[in-house]
Amino acid sequence: MLLSGLPDSVGDDEDITRVLRSSSHFTASYVKASAFMPANDEATSVFRHGAEPREDLWRIARELFGPDARIYGAAVCKVRCIREQRLEVVADEPPPRHANIIGWPMNVDPEMQRAQQKELALVIASRSTLMRTNE
Q1: Contact 44, 100 (CB under 8 A)
Q2: Is 69 helix (H, G, I), strand (E, B) or coil?
Q3: What are phi and psi of 112, to 5 degrees?
Q4: Cis status of the peptide bond prior to 96, with omega within 30 of 0
Q5: pLDDT tens digits for 8-45?
Q6: How many CB atoms sit inside 10 A of residue 7's CB?
Q7: pTM for the whole thing?
Q8: Are 6 and 91 in contact (CB under 8 A)?
Q9: Which residues partner with 19 through β-bridges?
Q10: b/e 93-114 (16+ beta carbons within 10 angstroms → b)
């Protein structure tokens, strides 16, 4: 059991949320692949929280990024969707509820690597629900 009270193992039926801090990560109606692309450390930071209650979702985002950080919204999907892309979601606390999407394709050719990663991120984004902070 983690400090957050969640189990160490992330379940397939859990919701995970990617906080959207860039307007380039979504349109008016859908999440873009860029929202899920891994950072330089080869992981994508997410939180173990679903779309509801929204107040808790935005509170978690504010606690992590600070009260003045620009938060546009969130992309919410099931862990199963990520695992179907042969990626893994692992708990990574602190902060509470934090997890990482890992296992992204690596390739000696940086263009090929980015294309392979984008293909997976596109599937995840297409199966995510867009939550806007101003809804």
Answers
A1: yes
A2: coil
A3: -65, -40
A4: no
A5: 999 999 999 999 999 999 999 999 999 999 998 799 99
A6: 12
A7: 0.92
A8: yes
A9: 74
A10: eeeebbbbbbbbbeeeeeeebe
| Cα distances (Å, whole numbers) of residue 93 to 24, 109, 128 | 27, 32, 23
DSSP code string of 85-116:
TT-EEEE-PSSTTEEEEE-----SSHHHHHHH
**C-alpha to C-alpha distance for 131 and 70, rounded to whole angstroms:** 15
| 11, amino acid identity | G
Which residue from 80, 76, 85, 103 is spatially nearest to 20, judged by alpha carbons?
Answer: 76
CB 105 within 8 A of CB 120: yes
- Reported as half-sphere exposure (CB side, CA atoms, 13 A), residue 49 has a value of 23
